[in-house]
């Protein structure tokens, strides 16, 4: 299969450099150690069902890949090189009891990634434990560019504002991870006390923690991911997501004040009309007849310059809530936990353009996993965050 890359994919390609590629990672921990030869068989059985995910990127096209090998998991969120992305833009990894898949964000988002790894786990359980399951059949609608489908003539111009940037360790070459596991009901009960969602509650707690850093002179801006399938009908396994941008100026706030500010901003940005205007604004430039004639390499360089000038300093960090994750009932006894990670954003040669922290939330069975990925040696933010979380839920 060969399809044209969507506008989100072009942005992710434009941000590539030697230190950074926008990768997200999904991991599933099973009850027994992973057998790599069985994992390879399981992978081979589903590859043809996901031609837009098991894929490579060449110029402005996504092309399906048939030959992909499982690898021992040696490093978390190691940047993908251009050569690697042109060969295959995902990695299938194993270590101990865990199967992980790392995706270059240009080919899919969290929804598509979860659909793929759940299918891989089902296939693996079938191969190892000889458990029967219903094998899915792919649908043509899974390949559609839903951005194009829902773009109209409404537009929204987002204001760009430089945000507070958390200091980072320039000598550190590997991503560090701090993970917390909390009973889901503990978080939900507290969030409901404030009459807000888990996402709003944890965003407020995150901003409250960042406000404890010294010398904050710029606004704290958190990019909160939005799965557009919850607002627009779509089964696409390609990218179909946006970000709400939550902004809080430096200052002293009660937790209730933060909740109020964040809830108001998210409510406005979650409205279907607002999201459609954002989709249309993002798509219209790419669909302009003049822009479409511009050679891909020139377009990529132009977008890289725009991104480095504006978007790269537009947020302090990203928060992604994968929500409550379900598995096929036959797989549930074999799966212990499911979690996600997102690569910190670091740009080579420019100290001011970085987002050295990212935060991913995932809920499975009775627990929620809170994963921080960072380019800092010490877990400074996580220590503050977890202390505040314990104060809230204890």
Short description:
The protein has 394 residues and is of the alpha+beta class. It has helices spanning 7-14, 36-46, 82-87, 110-129, 146-150, 184-193, 198-210, 255-269, 272-287, 289-293, 296-309, 380-393; strands at residues 2-4, 23-30, 55-58, 61-64, 71-72, 90-95, 98-104, 176-183, 220-227, 241-248, 317-325, 335-342, 345-346, 354-355, 357-364, 367-374. Strand 3 and strand 4 (61-64) form a beta hairpin.
Q: Could you explain how this protein is built, in words?
A:
- The strands form 4 sheets. The protein has a 6-stranded mixed beta sheet with strand order 8-16-15-11-9-10, with helices on both faces. Strands 5-6-7-2-12 form a 5-stranded mixed beta sheet, with helices on one face.
- It has helices at 7-14, 36-46, 82-87, 110-129, 146-150, 184-193, 198-210, 255-269, 272-287, 289-293, 296-309, 380-393; strands at residues 2-4, 23-30, 55-58, 61-64, 71-72, 90-95, 98-104, 176-183, 220-227, 241-248, 317-325, 335-342, 345-346, 354-355, 357-364, 367-374.
- It has 2 domains: 2-137, Chloramphenicol acetyltransferase-like domain (Chloramphenicol Acetyltransferase, 2-Layer Sandwich), CATH 3.30.559.10; 154-330 and 345-393, Chloramphenicol Acetyltransferase (2-Layer Sandwich).
- By secondary structure, it is of the alpha+beta class.
- 39% of the residues are buried.
